[in-house]
Design brief:
CATH architecture of the largest domain: Up-down Bundle
CATH superfamily of the largest domain: Butyryl-CoA Dehydrogenase, subunit A, domain 3
Radius of gyration: 22 Å
Shape: globular
Strand content: 5-15%
Number of domains: 3
CATH class of the largest domain: Mainly Alpha
Number of helices: 11
CATH topology of the largest domain: Butyryl-CoA Dehydrogenase, subunit A, domain 3
Number of strands: 10
Strand order of the largest sheet: 1-4-5-8
Helix content: 40-55%
Order of helices and strands: HHHHHEEEEEEEEHHEEHHHH
């Protein structure tokens, strides 16, 4: 593949950057925010997404019949990275995960109801796959969906649902056939979050991010809100996870932290000697820069493959997610080491090295290696689907 952007790609990126530079309400961006910077969780961020929608940039890769422009995935990549670099909300869940799954598998009713709202930034979603006994192994979910008239009765618990406290709709998997093999008895549903049978309970995390447990008590869902075919939900979830692993783990914020570290090394001394002259520090910076470029190439390779006809590039998505999030953790560790004791100071502390980012990213990068499928899961996908290795027990 060609890793260079075309003139059209560069023109689009310049247009996006110009729009973001001129955007009036800069409170929609927070480049120091580690905990869920990508979320559309404030009125200011929703307003920004609405303005992006007016520009025709949400759903830019969708078919024209649904308000898209049939552009290749590079445009979506460029838009998402530009937003991420500034600590802005990103397009991941609605446009990428839910929208693209509905385009492939949704009924005409679901497409007509949800796709225009997603394209116009009028709606936000929570995604419910994980459960107390089914974390990264989504196929082990046990939340029950039992046939009840012309719909389904849902009972059970989901956990680690990050957007549940502000989303309007819940995109969740439930087990509809307990006798089938675990990968074959799951169905996807769309459920309104204001349903009286839904209770949301906050969970704090090491990264100071709010996620949630969600309890469903006799929640009835019409057949109209079943996504695709009954008992085929795990297939759709796998496709959606490929999109999540890419769109929810952007590289721009990691590269920004890399620049903070380089600037710190360039301008500071230790024991009266510039850090930039320390051979150990120079070796570490060179190693991290090499890994940063490798992460960038893996991301572009996924974008290129996803723009071509054929099945979703599952292995490439796992390779990018695994490498980029583990690299982010390596960078956080190196920043703490090179920054010394001052690197433990939190964001906002006066004179904290690297603006206090080391401490917050050190905590938060652990979460990134778990969300969207833990690193161990990504290794299993690469081993079995990419390398053809046998499953071990």
């Amino acid at each position: 593949m060609d890793f260079n952007f075309t003139p059209e790609h560069r023109e689009f990126l310049a247009e996006v950057e110009e729009f973001l530079d001129a955007y009036e309400d800069q409170t929609a961006f927070d480049p120091t925010r580690e905990n869920g910077a990508q979320l559309v969780d404030t009125p200011e961020r929703r307003t920004l997404m609405g303005e992006l929608a007016k520009k025709g940039w949400l759903g830019i890769t969708w078919p024209e019949e649904w308000g898209g422009q049939d552009k290749d995935g590079i445009y979506e990549y460029l838009l998402n990275e530009a937003l991420a670099q500034r600590g802005g909300p990103q397009i991941g869940k609605g446009v990428g995960i839910i929208g693209k799954t509905l385009l492939r598998h949704g009924s005409e009713k679901l497409q007509k109801e949800f796709l225009p709202q997603i394209r116009d930034a009028e709606i936000e979603f929570a995604v419910g796959y994980s459960e107390p006994e089914a974390g990264s192994d989504a196929a082990s979910m046990r939340l029950r969906a039992v046939r009840d008239g012309d719909g389904w009765r849902l009972n059970g618990e989901k956990t680690w649902t990050t957007s549940a406290h502000f989303a309007e709709w819940y995109w969740l998997g439930a087990r509809t056939d307990f006798d089938a093999p675990k990968h074959n008895g799951i169905t996807l549903f769309l459920v309104p979050m204001d349903h009286q049978g839904i209770t949301v309970q906050a969970i704090g995390t090491i990264g100071h991010e709010r996620t949630n447990s969600v309890f469903l008590d006799n929640v009835w869902v019409s057949d109209d809100y079943v996504v695709g075919e009954v008992n085929s939900g795990f297939q759709y979830i796998c496709e959606a996870l490929d999109l999540e692993r890419f769109t929810m783990f952007t590289l721009s914020p990691i590269l920004a932290r890399m620049e903070l570290l380089i600037d710190y090394v360039r301008t500071n001394e230790r024991n009266g000697r510039p850090l930039s002259e320390d051979t150990g520090v120079r070796r570490e910076i060179a190693r991290l820069l090499t890994h940063a470029e490798m992460a960038r190439m893996l991301g572009l390779r996924f974008v290129d493959a996803s723009s071509r006809p054929g099945p979703a590039p599952t292995v490439l998505a796992s390779e990018y997610k695994l490498y980029s999030t583990e690299f982010s953790k390596e960078l956080a560790n190196a920043s703490m080491d090179i920054g010394g004791s001052g690197a433990q100071l939190v964001v906002g502390t006066e004179d904290a090295p690297m603006a206090g980012r080391s401490e917050s990213t050190y905590r938060y990068t652990v979460i990134d290696t778990i969300g969207g499928g833990a690193s161990e899961i990504q290794k299993n996908i690469i081993a079995r689907r990419g390398l053809g290795l046998p499953k071990t027990f």
